[in-house]
Amino acid sequence: MNRGVSYLFKIMVFFLLATSIVVLVVSSLTTIYYEMHSDVDRPIYGSENIPRLIILLLLTLGVFFVLYMKSCFEKYRIFTAGSLVFITLYSLMLLWAIRPRAVDDALLVDACINEFMAGDYTSLTKPGGYLFIWPFQLGYTAFGQIMALLFGESNFLAWELVQLLCILVTMFLIYRITWELFGDRVVCGIAGLMSFGALFFYNYVTFIYGDILSMAPQTLAIYMMVLYLKRKKTVYAVVSAIAIALAVLLKTNCEVTLIALVGILILEGVFASKEEKAAGFDLKKTVKALALAALFLALTFVFKEAINAYYCSVSGLSEIPKGSPSWSHIAMGLQESDLEDGWYNGYNYRVFRENNYDSEATAREAKENIRQTLEKFAENPLYAARFFVRKFTTQWADSVAISTHNLDLVSRHVENQPALCDFLVFGKGSRVLCWIMNVFMPVCYAGVSVYLFGIIKGRKFTYQEMLLPVLIFGGIIFHQFWEGSSRYAMRYYIYWLPYGAFGLKVLLGRIEKFLIRKNRH
Fold first, then answer.
1. Are the beta carbons of 196 and 63 closer than 8 angstroms?
2. What is d(CA 376, CA 383) in angstroms, rounded to the nearest whole number?
């Protein structure tokens, strides 16, 4: 690896280590919860039951240590297969008990899908229509029309079963990525067992939207890039490019992953290591890397333009509306709010409406709002620091990733719910689920911190090993300025699993050595 690139990665790792320690400490000392029967996303800090947390962490670590000492993790396929079975059963239980429905933006898009199926495109063509304001949802809408053709309009159960499939594909690919990164049976076994506690991710099987649907092609793109970096077969990069282009259509947040994939591709292909320079500059390698990077960007652009061209042809538009500009999201992400600073407060809707749905005028006003906010930050750096730290922790130190609030949202409009629904969403079952997630977060981030600290101390690493940390780094930076929500952080949080498992193996090994030395004395 090029020395300059290696230093760049280490700077990033140091930043990730600092943020991981912050999450570990905050999630251990406090807990974030949400008011039930509330229509707004308002994370609320509460004190953690530290004695209970310590006892549960010690018990959890004890189970991992016993299995480690008995070499059970060597049979890693048992743990990974068992976790996939558990995910399926747990998710099906949620779907049966809650019978969730689309809510909020998903419900609005569902209405647009049904209108489109009937040949009514006013939600796209009329100022103030949902897709006129948010035309980036057209890729998700197109997928919805396919779902309507296959399974009927507003068939929410079909959507949820497809999301379950996406969760299973995502987790299977994460297990494969773990193997490709570390080639260690024990690490893979630990990752499989750890994933039993990642309930925050599986809870989203009930939340109909692009978040989970996009995770499967996004994770496929990451897996294919890992294979390309290891084996240098062009077909892997091509499949990665196709997969991430599809993911971006379903959820534009996947553009962060697109940037990470292109960035790692260019760094690996263009910047030669000391050994490669000694062997001679390989122009073909550089050209190939740049060509593949261009392919990633081109396919994403082509897929998006194909969707836009289709909807122009059926709606009679000459071009797709520009919609609410990204600047309004950034402005909102930097604002104080009665709900939570930097989270959704309706500004992006409101400012677009007040400017008569004029994208350019809205962008100008949003930029001015950003300028005023930055001036305020510059005048009071301590205030700015508190704002960004709080925004970071409310997103990343939320052990349930707002999933419990979403279980409440998707279940409250269904009549005659079974008793199990009330138990899981509002009763004692909910507290049990929360505590499982409360334990998973410090276990995961403790492992991640150990892994990252090892890199700082000098452990060698590869480009493919740095791909997910680059993505998570980008996600942290992006959502410090964009609209905040721990639902957005969830899609990065689950990718820490391989690294948490690696760090946990290191930790268990050190405990073993400590006990051996103690017994000798």
1. no
2. 9
- Structure tokens of 149? 């053709």
Could you report how far apart the first and last alpha carbons of the chain are, in Å? 43
Q: CA 360 → CA 85, 326, 327, 330, 363, distances in Å?
A: 50, 11, 10, 15, 5
- Structure tokens, 103: 């809510």
208: which residues sit within 8 A by CB, 6+ positions away?
100, 101, 102, 103, 106, 110, 156, 159, 160, 163, 410
| Tokens describing residue 143 | 């997928």
Residue found by looking up tokens 């990252």 in the block: 452
| DSSP bridge partners of 31 | 46
pLDDT tens for each residue of 9-68:
999 999 999 999 999 999 999 888 888 887 778 888 888 889 999 999 999 999 999 999
In this structure, is the dihedral angle defined by the CA atoms of residues 484, 490, 491 and 495, taken in order, positive or negative?
Answer: positive
Work out whether the CA dihedral 93, 99, 105, 109 comes out positive or negative.
Answer: positive
Reduced to 3 states (helix: H, G, I; strand: E, B; else coil), residue 126 is coil
